[in-house]
Amino acid sequence: MAFDESLTKDVLVHADIVKIISSYINLSKKGRNYVGVCPFHDDTNPSLTVSPEKKMFKCFVCGTGGNAITFVQKYERISFIEALKKVADMSGFHDPRLEKSVSVKKVDEKKEPLYKALTDLTLYYQYALGTNEGAEGLQYLLDRKLDADLQSKYRLGYAFRDGKATIEFLQSKGHSLKTLEDIGITMIVGNARADRNQGRVIFPICDKDGQVIGLVLDD
Ligand SMILES: [Zn+2]
Description:
Layout: H1 5-14, H2 17-22, E1 28-30, E2 33-36, E3 48-51, E4 56-59, E5 65-66, H3 68-76, H4 80-90, H5 96-100, H6 112-129, H7 135-143, H8 148-153, E6 157-158, H9 163-172, H10 177-182, E7 186-189, E8 192-195, E9 201-206, E10 212-217
Antiparallel strand pairs: 1-2, 2-3, 3-4, 4-5, 6-9, 7-8, 9-10
Helix pairs in contact: 3-4
Bound molecules: zinc ion (ZN).
């Protein structure tokens, strides 16, 4: 990943490793170091040692060790860049180089085409909700007290009854039939594929970054 290596060093210099780790687990002082129950294995005795001088941590049972950034990365199961930014935040360290790394998002390469297709599909469903055909779905949402604000917040939508047109629309946006099959929206109609959600109201599932990762249908 292309970013300034010296940025990592600068963040670590400003980070108080004891403060960072103790915001996740309890640490107690033992001599020059701190110890805590290791979160990376089934620990009962405090096996994790944190050295403020070396700015490192190490578990002498499971062997997990590293610096403040790798602790956060492992504990939260996030990317290195995300952990780097988080540790910088927690340390009150500001640097313009951190802003540049904002655009570096954790991306699972296999899932990326699926996410893109789900995003386009969700926009299409949102559009359909505002059409004449979508009026029934819209009324259904309004009856359930899901007003325009909530519809837009939760990216609610409606799937056109012409499911073939939906598949064609997505293909015209560059999504392969394989991708559309992988996101689970296709069904076979004659010798073509159609959107199996046709005529339904759609509730997308989003992750914490707002990325649509799945769809729920209402019956
Ligand atoms: Zn351990």
